[in-house]
Amino acid sequence: MMGGSPDPTAGRGAALSPSPSSRSTARRPAPDPGAGSALDSAVRGYLGHLAVERGLAANTLSSYRRDLRRYARVQEERGRGSIGEITEDDVRAFLVGLREGDDDHPPLSAGSAARALVAVRGLHRFALREGLAAGDPAHDVKPPTPPRRLPKAISLEEVERLLAAAAGPSGDPGTARGLRDRALLELLYGSGARISEAVGLDVDDLDLRDGFARVAGKGGKARVVPIGDYAREAVDAYLVRARPELAGAGRGGPALFLNARGGRLSRQGAWMVLRAAADRAKLSEVSPHTLRHSFATHLLDGGADVRVVQELLGHASVTTTQVYTLVTVQLLREVYATSHPRARN
Description:
The protein is mainly alpha-helical. The N and C termini lie far apart (50 Å). The radius of gyration is 24 Å and the shape is globular. Helix 6 packs antiparallel against helix 7. Strand 1 and strand 2 form a beta hairpin. It is built from 15 helices and three strands.
């Protein structure tokens, strides 16, 4: 079973500068959002469609909502009261505004602007299909091409330092929170789960005897991932010696990882755990996906088939997983260049 997010329409190479006519469009004050304009109504309809019919994950839906609210506000400032009035120049001008920023928003990277454009293009496709507009002005607007960045993995020795540094806020690995933090990080590296998937686990999602966990991936799609012996031992120690103490501070619940108040540990809380351990281990450039990237890279370095890694990571397409093969090829090139007597002249 695999999870995945909707595959955005890709494109390259279109100019992003608005035409002179779009620059001269008179700006009007945006209507009061509470007034419920026709454009607002179209946005709400599309978000409802994504939530109910497409089943988008809550985090993805939140990103779409934020991007489309900004889009609607910009278009209303340009005098567009309904989605049918928006032109291609309006869409291009919005994209340029994302990249340049304004008084209320910093400039967005190419990747972030492309993500916002995916939401905009989806909105206009929906409007055309539902008869809310006669055409799709976003159809020919291409997203900016982000620079290709390889996933940042850390070495096995660095992973071990990071895991050993999980000790809770007191610095004592034997406390309830220290045991929780070690179990969380061991599970992230041992399963390749995203942080959001790990904190979403319930106790009943684990089968420690056989070494498996059932995680809910992007779009709510579930998959089963194996848990190695180190992670099983750490999670078992947490369940026996720490979780009851943390649960006693709250009302009880099914969540596997609990915070100090007995509630479910949040994504932000889990990221703070990872960052604190990285600081203690003196590791820089650690991100929420560092252990997931390292999980995939180390599997491929060990000879795992890319299709198996795709399944474990929950990628809908193997092309998403293949970016990790570039990391291992890059390592091979570096080893060759520094080791072979005739690699360099």
